[in-house]
Write a structure and sequence with these properties.
- By secondary structure, this protein is mainly beta.
- It has one domain (4-280): Porin (Beta Barrel).
- It is built from 3 helices and 18 strands.
- Strands 1-2-3-6-7-8-9-12-13-14-15-16-17-18 form a 14-stranded antiparallel barrel. Strands 4-5 form a two-stranded antiparallel sheet.
Length: 281
């Protein structure tokens, strides 16, 4: 079978299963906030494309083909209220991420409430012909209003041809639940992600990327996302749909420095701006 065969089969499977588009819930939702303004601009459909530091979170199997060393950071006031920030580093075959989330103090009838959590992600990938195989370890610590921690291990893979990529990520294949001081327990729900990316280079220094992704395929909360990106020299622009609304993004890169901006539209919670800065050697 030609390489395009398995790509088309997996894409058809993803589209047939993804019959609704909803947001994830539970402790794993912390990591769905992402670490990349570029990925947000593409509707978070980044598992297959993952050709930069965002691979650490979105699909570490792609680190099998990552070259050099890169460090990136992102900060956002999520949908008008929650403060979220993440810092990522990546090198060949390996990368890590640290993320922080804080709601600030929210007034209520009984005083004030606050939610705060921290996450660590370690990921790695190794090549085997056109395949890349990897694993992602996620650690979540909740510090307020009640403290607790837990972790999940997620195997992943990529399949790459000259212009097409396929990615699979099995979330929480192995995990320990978050156990709170209050005695309550909240587990990481297993979930399957399938993504595809097609890349075209119609002219020198011009590139187009078309991406599709389905998350939560073995859960009751499936999300279908897609995006389109173009690069001309060092300038990039993108548009996407993340299952809840339209997303946009712009990028500019010069030498080893790249600046990314993204905006996610929400009718209920307001829009969310995200700015990312990346330095590569």
């Amino acid at each position: 079978m030609r390489p395009i065969g398995p790509v088309c089969l997996i894409l058809c499977l993803a589209l047939s299963i993804a019959v609704c588009a909803q947001e994830f819930s539970g402790v794993g939702a912390f990591f769905s906030l992402g670490s990349s303004a570029r990925a947000l601009g593409l509707g978070r459909a980044f598992a297959a494309l993952a050709d930069d530091e965002g691979a650490v979170l979105h699909n570490p199997a792609a680190l099998a083909s990552y070259e050099g060393f890169g460090a990136s950071s992102v900060f956002v006031r999520q949908f008008g209220g929650i403060t979220y920030g993440a810092a990522t580093f990546a090198t060949s075959y390996f990368g890590g991420l640290l993320a922080l989330l804080d709601s600030g103090r929210i007034s209520s009838g009984d005083g004030t409430l606050r939610y705060a959590s921290q996450g660590i992600v370690l990921g790695g990938g190794l090549p085997l012909g056109p395949f890349g195989f990897g694993v992602r370890w996620r650690f979540l610590n909740v510090s307020a209003p009640s403290s607790g921690s837990g972790w999940a291990l997620d195997p992943c893979m990529t399949f790459t041809t000259e212009s097409l990529r396929v990615a699979m990520l099995l979330e929480s294949a192995l995990s320990t639940p978050v156990r709170y001081e209050s005695g309550s327990v909240e587990g990481f729900a297993p979930s399957l992600t399938i993504g595809t990316a097609a890349t075209l280079a119609p002219a020198e220094h011009v590139e187009w990327n078309l991406v599709f992704q389905a998350d939560g395929l073995i859960t009751a909360s499936t999300r279908l996302a897609m995006g389109l990106e173009t690069w001309v020299e060092g300038l990039g622009a993108r548009v996407g749909y993340d299952g809840q609304g339209v997303t946009y993004g712009l990028s500019a890169r010069l030498l080893g420095l790249q600046l990314d901006w993204a905006y996610a539209m929400r009718s209920d919670l307001g829009g969310s701006h995200r700015v990312g800065l990346t330095l590569r050697w």
